[in-house]
């Protein structure tokens, strides 16, 4: 009887531990928001990957939770969510479903003043303030239409059609490309178009046909842009850059080949002529600087020596007068260049012809 009672107690203890563990795990997953909240509703063209209890974030900080997701007769997904009272929505805030990780988890992102910023960018102006001008408070009873939100998209669509073109590609290259694309589209972690183009260059190293790979990527970007209804300016800019690069190479490829072939024929004789010209003007392949350093290893000593020259000549003239020597040139004088006056500090010097 005692053993039965002991077994029951152990079983109850194990059950209590399991229940406690489940509670901790559930709390960690749901992560309830502390504080009073306001409930809103918004429609999205696509809510793929967004689930109940998903986070609502502003600048990466959790401010609410997704309460419910339902499909409307109009074909849009209606998302009901909460936001802390201190972060209530305004009519200038932008809502978007974003990737939380490459596994596919999503969260609802709120960009304060995001609609003002987007409108300013479209008109070539900039909004003032950290997040643009503050808008009017949004009525919680009003459903935010899908035309004012950005829905979800499938990042795997970016890789459609690549398998036949790529051989032995490193999975790490794919993951980095996908991560950078997500960051670029979502405007996170400072990723720019240059980072994505670098990843594309790495992918082309595994491609059997590089031009076909670039064309597939551009087409897939078009599919993603269409699913976002053209609301990602970064995708549009990236597509333009890649299309410009692709079209330029494709259209002018034969011209480039001809230019390179003509250059290979013309450049060697030209280089040889330039080499001979340098030989004539510089005396072969002499290193002028090296030769000057050999003759005058210390320019400071040379300057000190030249400073003594005027005094030396003055002393010599005085000695000649004392000895009664004639200082007139019997065969005429040599005219000194202007450099002589500089070196002699303006002193008078007579140089006789030999």
From TrEMBL:
Give the highest taxon in the source lineage.
Answer: Bacteria
Residues in Mce/MlaD domain copies: 37-113
Question: Can you supply a Gene Ontology BP term from the record?
Answer: biological process involved in interaction with host
Q: Where is the signal peptide?
A: none
User: Where is the Mammalian cell entry C-terminal domain positioned along the sequence?
Assistant: 136-266
GO cellular component annotations of the record: extracellular region
Instruction: Report the Pfam families cross-referenced here.
Output: Mce4_CUP1, MlaD
PANTHER family associated with the record = INTERMEMBRANE PHOSPHOLIPID TRANSPORT SYSTEM BINDING PROTEIN MLAD-RELATED, MCE-FAMILY PROTEIN MCE1B
Q: What is this protein called?
A: MCE family protein
Q: Which organism is it from?
A: Gordonia amarae
């Amino acid at each position: 009887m005692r053993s039965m009672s002991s077994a029951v107690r152990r079983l109850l203890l194990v059950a209590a531990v399991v229940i406690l563990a489940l509670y901790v795990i559930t709390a960690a997953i749901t992560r309830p928001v502390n504080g009073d909240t306001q409930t809103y509703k918004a429609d999205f063209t696509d809510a793929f990957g967004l689930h109940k209890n998903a986070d609502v974030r502003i600048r990466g900080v959790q401010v609410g939770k997704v309460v419910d997701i339902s499909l409307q007769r109009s074909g849009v997904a209606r998302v009901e969510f909460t936001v802390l009272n201190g972060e209530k929505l305004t009519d200038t805030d932008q809502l978007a479903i974003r990737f939380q990780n490459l596994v596919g988890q999503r969260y609802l992102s709120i960009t304060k003043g995001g609609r003002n910023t987007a409108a300013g960018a479209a008109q070539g102006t900039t909004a003032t303030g950290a997040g643009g001008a503050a808008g009017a408070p949004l009525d919680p009873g009003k459903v935010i239409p899908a035309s004012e939100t950005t829905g979800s998209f499938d990042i795997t669509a970016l890789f459609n059609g690549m398998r036949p073109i790529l051989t032995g590609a490193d999975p790490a290259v794919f993951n980095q490309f996908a991560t950078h694309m997500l960051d670029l589209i979502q405007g996170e972690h400072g990723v720019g178009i240059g980072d994505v183009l670098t990843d594309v260059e790495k992918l082309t190293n595994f491609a059997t046909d590089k031009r076909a790979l670039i064309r597939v990527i551009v087409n897939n970007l078009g599919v993603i842009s269409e699913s976002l209804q053209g609301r990602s300016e970064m995708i549009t800019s990236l597509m333009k850059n890649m299309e410009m690069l692709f079209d330029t190479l494709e259209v002018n490829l034969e011209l480039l080949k001809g230019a390179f072939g003509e250059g290979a024929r013309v450049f060697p004789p030209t280089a040889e002529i330039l080499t001979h010209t340098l030989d004539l003007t510089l005396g072969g392949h002499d290193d002028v600087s090296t030769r000057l350093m050999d003759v005058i290893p210390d320019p400071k000593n040379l300057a000190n020596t030249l400073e003594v020259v005027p005094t030396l000549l003055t002393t010599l003239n005085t000695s000649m007068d004392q000895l009664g020597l004639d200082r007139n040139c019997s065969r005429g004088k040599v005219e000194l260049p202007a450099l002589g006056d500089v070196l002699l500090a303006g002193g008078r010097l007579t140089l006789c012809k030999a």
